[in-house]
Amino acid sequence: MYPNVPPVDQLVTLIAVDEHRSIAAAARALGFSQQTVSARVAAAEKTLGVAVFRRGINGSEPTERGRTVLDAAHDYLGATATFSRAVTAAARPDAARSLPVAVSNTVAELYFPSWAARFHRENPHVRILLRPCNSAEVCDAVASGEAVLGFVEGAEVTHGLASDVVGVDDLVLVVPASHPWAGTEVTAGQLRRTPLIMREEGSGSREIVEKVLGQVAEPAGEFGSLSAQRAAVTGMGEPTVIAARAVAAQVNSGELVRVPVRDITFRRMLRAVRPRGRDLPSADPDAATLLAIARETGGGRVGGHER
Fold first, then answer.
1. Which parts of the sequence belong to the HTH lysR-type domain (predicted)?
2. Which CATH number fits domain 99-300: 3.40.190.290, 3.40.50.150, 2.130.10.120, 3.40.50.2020?
3. pTM for this model (two decimals)
4. Where are the domains of the chain?
5. For every one of its 307 residues, what pLDDT tens digit does the chain have, with 9 covering 90 and above?
């Protein structure tokens, strides 16, 4: 494929002759006979079509074109060494690997850090490449092959993907302590008529609220993360339905108040999504290990199943 590139051993010999400025000195440094070094230099020059050295009574000096070849040989051998190290590392049983995972924003903030921490402790040579996004985008990433595994919350799984339930996540209605609803119970009708602080379109949180309530009022505001949604409740003073874990500290401190909703609960499944028909243990054992950890330590004790 590269007919004018001599073998590595010949390039090493050229560089040794350049460094020592003589065939004899290079031979001693390399541990070969002068005849072997001379033969390698001649073979390299023939392959290259370039007279690399000018030989004289004072030794071997590079020609002008030879200097160009020798400089390039240094770069070539450096790249060859890098390649060799990479191949050696890749061949090791404990070689570093990457695991691209797409995770919904809620799962990424509330659940995935503990899953990733345990996975790293047990698999230190595997690097998780996390892509946080909303649930719809997680499904897109897995379907397109950008991620081998995804985690979402909610009911909808698109693109014909298989899903495995790994836990449950409860959402609650909260208001600031000064809100008129604090200390009361509200109805589904009141919620439908009240502008709520909502997550963005495509998020699993919004999906479950709209699925449970049906038609809802125009949101008081839409936010792309749990932290922004949580801050907006206090800042804007409006109600929101949010993951219970996300506001546990604020509820415990009294900053926010949980408001019961008569005859309604907002419970959603945490799901792992993957291409249908893909056997993870054989196709991607690292993904299968992460999935097992998520099942064991997910939001609740729910038996996994494929949908």
1. 6-63
2. 3.40.190.290
3. 0.64
4. 8-91, 99-300
5. 456 889 888 998 998 999 889 899 988 888 889 999 999 999 999 999 999 999 888 888 999 999 999 999 888 888 887 777 677 666 666 667 899 999 998 899 999 999 999 999 999 989 999 999 988 899 999 999 999 999 998 767 878 889 999 999 999 999 999 999 999 999 999 999 999 999 998 888 898 999 999 989 999 999 988 899 999 999 999 999 999 999 999 999 999 999 999 999 999 889 999 998 878 888 899 999 999 999 998 665 444 444 4
Token representation of residue 164:
């495995």
